[in-house]
Amino acid sequence: MNDDLARLREMREKAVVGGGEKRIAEQHKRGKMTARERLAALLDEGSFQEIGALATHNCSDFGMAAQRYPGDGVVAGFGKINGRRVAIFAHDFTVLGGSLSVVQSQKICRVHDLAMESGIPLIGLNDSGGARIQEGVRSLAAYGEMFTRNVLASGVIPQISVILGPCAGGAVYSPALTDFVIMAEGTSFMFITGPEVIKAVTGEQVSAVDLGGPAVHNSRSGVAHLLAASEAQALELVKLLLSYLPQNNTEDPPQVVPHDVADRMDDRLNEIVPARENEPYDMHEVIEAVFDHDSFLEIHPYFARNAIVGFARLDGHSVGIVANQPAHLAGALDIDSSDKIARFVSTCDAFNIPLVTFVDTPGYLPGVDQEHYGIIRHGSKVIYAFCQATVPKITIVTRKAMGGAYVAMCSKQMRSDLAFAWPSAQIAVMGAVGAVRVLRRKELAAAGDPEALEGQFVAEYHERFMNPYMAADTGQIDEVIEPRETRPRLVRALEVLRTKVQQNPPKKHGIIPM
Ligand code: HXC
Question: Which of 178, 207, 242 is the last residue of a domain?
């Protein structure tokens, strides 16, 4: 072997070990894979094409001249996932905690630019302590470069972030700007600043898990969209998620060979809504019965559980599902569920994924906290997102569709293409008791037996308003269908709507209530 080749091989070998064997062993001891092991687990075998493997930083402050590692804390390049091209980077925590240097940012920005130019998804495997402290303000600027790309790529190519270590500072803001954040039990954390700094600044004592562990971000903050039991499962979730998404916003999502009968009717659906109107049922059962067998991937399953959002397939085609969940908070819309729905609707719209909305909600959640924390501001996001969406939209009212929430949940006037209702639907301005107490106050006050009279008025109101027929009469519902017919109806409707073209007025961008 000549000297040139020997030199190249030596440098490549160095790049492969990153921060060294000791730190790799430490990484393994924490139950974490190395950056290269993660890439090998996620990408099709032999498909990875690396860039910048030999790049190093040029900082000499704080003894950094002695800490130069080829690749500088990130492995970046291109590969394939189930045959589909992706751009990808994986932080190498063994090199200075995967902290972001100028060089690291340049490598990530390079694959990001190429992803945009080629119209392919960008996947980030994050395991980084944020801005590299030794590089000072230059590393902050380096994040600025990445954030700009995250934002410009938003709605153009899918951006998926997997959090696989303690991520702080810019290493959480960049993922937060992407479309999906996946966390893994036991190894991932997200915070703008860690427990030590919090203790120093505010005096609060909190563990890393309680501050920014996977449970916190999947159930309370809503920062994370999916929770995996392990790193390996988190990487599998990336593959699954991608299977519902197109390569970019000019393409349709991938279609799979249907494995379920298009005209299948499920008689259980006719019995699913309980006879007593306040009795809960699980909307997951409706989703499972209607869409292609085992095709539902729920997004945000632990956050704002009064709403359900996720991807599924209908006759092999990707669809986005939005639903109220009567089994949780009676399906009322509150601040968090409004954010959850609005974001998902807007994601589906960006990536040409038709929307199917199931409605069973008593309305927006009343309460002082809700009002004070901005239910008006957050609730209006649902309206905004549905109105703005130009993908095919089909709505099915299964039971309650009350007041503003009926309108907000993709009613006909919000440019829904087709609106169906089950016979159990109750489409009205408000519930019977509330309405009677407003409309019949004087008569009830003067009555000898107000309770009996109220019962009579409630029954009358029920008969007149608590059904789908007034809405069907006024054209707000296209058809009242048997619940078991829902799947074939949807299959046919989406087939017709597949070539739908609808445009919004030209503008720089709308101003979503934030
Ligand atoms: C340089 C860093 C670093 C950083 C970690 N390291 N973070 N080096 N810059 N930001 C180094 C450590 O010195 C250590 O080096 C190695 O990485 C592993 O770190 P440990 O602390 O030993 O690991 P662990 O105990 O797992 O803790 C990980 C951590 C902690 C929670 C990430 O290191 C930490 O709190 N780091 C600082 C996080 C932070 O506040 N970042 C915000 C930066 S500001 P050795 O040589 O010992 O192996 C920012 C703003 C951007 O990002 C702009 C946003 C708008």
Answer: 242
